[in-house]
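To: structure desk
From: M.T.
Subject: fold request, one chain
Message: Could you run this one when you get a chance? Sequence is below, nothing fancy, just the single chain.
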Amino acid sequence: MNVKRMMALCLLLFCAVFTQVHAQTKKETPEERKARYEKINNAKIAFIADKVNLTAEQAQRFWPIYNEHEARKRDLRHKAKQFRDENLASMTDEQIQTGLENRLAYRQRELDMDKEYMERYLRVITSRQLALFYRAEREFTKLLLDRLQTASK
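Reply: Done. Structure tokens follow.
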């Protein structure tokens, strides 16, 4: 990786972290939250693209699938989050049991969806690139969390 790309990536990541820390110190509007999410997402895409080394043709086919997958995961997590936000003290044991079962069902749906998208990704990129992609996603998350933790001190 050349120095210019690394510097650009670090700058994008720094902006994303700074935006996140700043957002935590004040109540942010939906527009600010969306802008913060976009900055972090753009930094993530740049990070992943650098690690996976997609060809132009692969990138043209890969990123729409990735964006669709991310949107579906986000929707599923939003639905699963509704149970976590409920007040357990006001729920009956049966409601809690149903909520726990629903939570597992959401996790299973997410796993099924990941299997489906793995097959779709493999039609566009190699298995090595897919493994690098999964690794890059984990590395980016770890890097982002480390930067957030450092910035909040």
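Reply (cont.): The chain is about 85% helix and 0% strand. Let me know if you need anything else for the meeting.
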